[in-house]
Amino acid sequence: QVQLVESGGGLVQAGGSLRLSCAASGRSFSSYAMAWFRQAPGKEREFVAAINKSGGTTYYTDSVKGRFTISRDNAKNTANLQMNSLKPEDTAVYYCAAIQSYTPVSLRTHTAYDYWGQGTQVTVSS
């Protein structure tokens, strides 16, 4: 079992920044790729970013490339999402997720993930 707890959400004006953190406990953190998904009201959960087990490879959805940066610290069992130049359309609940066996395709598929955090709200005002 892996327990994931997100923090760092909040209310920010358009153009501002937030840093989300995901603290993991339980089985070996470095055995899992980590990702961030988001879900806005009335919409499906969508892929935002992922990072492989070692932290050497990252993946982003097109709408956040150049604005968001995913990172991880395997010594501290944490994964982070630095979000800059935030837009109102980034408003959503953001979820941290962990996956042990994956492909570049399944990393972008929320149903493939093994563990989820409870989510943290990000609201960007215009």
Q: What's the arrangement of secondary structure elements?
A:
Blueprint: E1 2-7, E2 10-13, E3 18-26, E4 33-39, E5 46-51, E6 58-60, E7 68-73, E8 78-83, E9 92-99, E10 115-116, E11 120-125
Parallel strand pairs: 2-11
Antiparallel strand pairs: 1-3, 3-8, 4-5, 4-9, 5-6, 7-8, 9-10, 9-11
Overview of the structural elements:
- This protein is mainly beta and 126 residues long.
- It is 0% helix and 50% strand.
- It has no helices and eleven strands.
- The strands form two sheets. Strands 2, 4, 5, 6, 9, 10 and 11 form a seven-stranded mixed sheet that branches. Strands 1-3-8-7 form a four-stranded antiparallel sheet, with no helix packed on it.
- The chain is globular, with a radius of gyration of 13 Å.
- The termini are far apart.
- The model has no long low-confidence stretch (mean pLDDT 96).
What keyword list fits this structure?
126 residues; mainly beta; 7-stranded mixed beta sheet; 4-stranded antiparallel beta sheet
Oligomer: single chain
Number of strands: 11
Main beta sheet: strand number and arrangement? 7 strands, mixed
Order of helices and strands: EEEEEEEEEEE
Low-confidence spans: pLDDT under 50, at least 5 residues?
none
Strand proportion, as a percent range, falls in: over 45%
Radius of gyration based on Cα positions:
13 Å
Count of alpha/pi helices: 0
Inertia-based shape: globular
- Alpha carbon gap, first and last residue: 40 Å
Structural class of the helix and strand makeup? mainly beta
Average pLDDT level: 96
Helix share, percent: under 10%
